[in-house]
Amino acid sequence: MSKTSTAYVCQSCGSVYKKWVGKCEACGEWNTIVEEAVVESAPKGLGKAKGRAIEFVPLKGKSDHKPRKKTGIEEFDRVTGGGLVAGSAVLIGGDPGIGKSTILLQAVAALSKNTRCAYISGEEAIDQVRMRADRLGLGDADVSLASITSVRDIVSTIDKSDFDVMVIDSIQTMYLDNLDSAPGTVAQVRASAQELIRHAKKKDICLLLVGHVTKDGQIAGPRVLEHMVDTVLYFEGDRSHTFRILRSVKNRFGATDEIGVFEMGELGLQEVTNPSELFLSQRQEEVTGSAVFAGMEGTRPVLVEIQALVAPSPLGMPRRAVIGWDSSRLAMVLAVLETRCGVKIGANDVYLNVAGGLRIIEPAADLAVAAALMSSLSGVPVPHDMILFGEVGLSGEIRNVGQLDTRLKEASKLGFKHATIPYNSKTKIKIENLKINQIRHIRDIVPLFTEEN
Q1: Which of 84, 280, 393, 445 lies 20 to 30 Å from 263, alpha-carbon distance?
Q2: How far is CA 291 from CA 346, 369, 387, 388, in A?
Q3: What is the pLDDT of residues 372-423, one digit of tens each?
C-alpha cells in the first residue's frame, strides 16, 4: 500500500529538496520552497498484474483532419500557424497586465460567430469579465462564461458538453481536490493541466491555457507544463508602452519564433499589419549610433532600429547595458572590433538598445550592431537609407544568413536604397532600386566611418 510523505518543492522550477532551504540552488530564486505532500509508490513496481496489449496501426492511413478555426485576428492566426487546431492545447504566458486575458477574450468573441466557445475564469468574477467585454465592445458575443476553479467540475462539463474552444484563465488557479497541495503549487499545476488536456483532446476541444510567469519571464511551474501542450505563446512588451508582441516559442502545427504585433488601445489589442513601419516610425535621420537591421521573425521580415551609445567611462570597470539583445553576444562583437579592426572601445561605457521593445535572438544582427557601435564611437552616422545584416565570426569574417531575398525585398519596399550583406558567391542577388554591397570581413565596414561623406 502506498504511503504519503512530504517533500520541499520549488514553485519556480519544480526542484525537489529533502528539507527547507531559503534559496533554490537550481533557479536561484529566494523563498520559493514549499512543503508538499508526495505519494510514494510501492517499491515492488507493477507487481504481477498484466497490462492490456497495445494495438498498433499502420503508419499509412487516412485520418479526418478538421479545418483550422480562424479567429479573423490575422496576427493571432499567424502566430498559431494559421488558426487553432481541434484537440490542441495552447499555453499563453506573459507578465501581469500585459494583455493575455484581453487577446483571448477577443479571440473567443470572434470565434463565437461560428464556433461554440467557453471562457472559464479562475481569477475574476463573472461581472468583472462582463465589464471587460463591454469595454472592448464584445458584450453581445455568444460566449459561455463561468467562474470556477475545480478541475473535477470542469472535466465533467467537458465530457457532457459540445464546446469547440475553451479558455482556462489561469492554470495556476485550478486545483484537484484529491491533492493536498494548495492551488498554484507545482503538483497542482502539473496535475490540473494533465487532466484538462487529456479530456479536451478526447473531445477534440481546443484548450487555451493562461499561465503566469516568473521574474525571469518563464512560465511559472514545472517545465513539464510546456512539454504537455502543443503550442507555447509568450506575450512580450512593457506595460508602459502600447505595443505588444505575441511570440510562438513552440508550435507542433506551425513555425516557431513567429511573432504577432499588437497595439493596446481603448478597444483592446489592435493588430499591426506592418511592424517594420511601426519600429522605424520614430527613427531620426543623420543620428550617430543608429543602424537598421533587416531581421526575420519566423516567416516574417522585420526591419528594426539598433541604437548604440559609446561614452567615456568615469569608472574603473566600464559599464555594458543591453536591452533587447544578448549581452554575451555584445561582448563578443566588441572583442572582434578591438582585435580584428583595431577599434578601441574597451575603456568606454557601451549602451545598446533595440528600439520598439522587440527582442532579437538571431545572430544576423551582429553586423548592424557593429555598425551602430562604430558610428557612435566615430561620430559619423550610418547612411539613413542603408540596412545591414550578417553574422560576425571570431576571426572577423561575415557569415551568410538565411532568407536573403525576403529581407532585401522588405527593405526595398520601405524605401531603403543600400544594403550591406555577407558575400555570397553561389547566389546572384538583384533587387530593384536597391544597391547591394557584399562584404567578406568586418573591417570592410570601417571605411563607412573614416571617409568624409
Answers
A1: 84
A2: 21, 7, 7, 7
A3: 999 999 999 999 999 999 999 999 999 999 889 999 999 999 999 999 999 9
Residue that has been written with the C-alpha cell 543620428 in this structure: 287
Q: Are strands 398-399 and 16-17 parallel, antiparallel or unpaired?
A: unpaired
What CATH number has the domain spanning 74-273? Answer: 3.40.50.300
pLDDT in tens, 118-148: 999 999 999 999 999 999 999 999 999 999 9
Q: What are phi and psi of 377, to 5 degrees?
A: -70, -40
Beta strands in 252-397 (DSSP E): 259-265, 268-271, 290-297, 300-312, 320-323, 348-354, 386-388, 391-392
278-449 architecture in CATH?
Answer: 2-Layer Sandwich (3.30)
pTM more than 0.85: no
CB 112 within 8 Å of CB 143? yes
Give the SS3 label for residue 312: strand
Burial letters 358-390, b for 16+ CB under 10 A, else e: bbbeebbbbbbbbbbbbbbbbebbbbebbbbbb
